[in-house]
What does this fold into?
Amino acid sequence: MRLVRGAVLVVLAAACAGRDEGPGAAPSLPPPERLVRPGATPVDTVVADLDGDRADEVTISSVSGEVDDLGIATPFVEVFDVRDGRWTRVFDATGSAPPGAGAPAAMLSAGAEFVGQSVDSLAAVDFAGDGRPELVVGILTFGATAGPLELWIVSMGDDGTLATVLYRVTERGGLIGIETDRLRVEYGVYRKHDPGCCPSRFAVETIGWNSAAGRVEVLDRRVTRAP
Ligand SMILES: [Ca+2]
It folds into this structure.
């Protein structure tokens, strides 16, 4: 009996080894510091199968080792996938942004009036429940005070290209919360004479999958007066 069990274990071990190391198998995931650009320090790593091909992509936010005159590091967001058997960078947020949904041309590019940017949120959220999650990226621009918070929801197509399916930008700051397959986004709504500290109204948006329309959208938006 012991021999039989041993034989089964050997067969299982051989099968597992074949799956992991056989010719054509995807290489194992290297640590994030070996994927990001030289000198950058990984901050957040999201491992998810964005295009539904049953192989995970890896999205990493990182910051530069060097800081600018004001002590601010440069943020990066990169997506890596296995191409021709090697882990390869397939998206770099310092280049062109994923097009679509009226999004701007660049994901990471601080405006002249602001000092810097940081990656505020990074997550994979399966809005449609189809096993093909979207990538959620929140980018906060800041200077002396908080600048706009940009929300990008990006999906990966069958061909591995990224497209923006929803883009939102607040006037100043905000919070992105993830509730399973939805986002809750809270932010101040500034009227003409509101000081920067103190918006007179707050908005709460629920962002999720509209199954009738077949897209991610703002499902609900409530605006209340500040207390
Ligand atoms: Ca994949």
User: Anything to note?
Assistant: Confidence is low (pLDDT under 50) at residues 1-22. The longest strand covers residues 57-67. The longest helix spans residues 2-21.
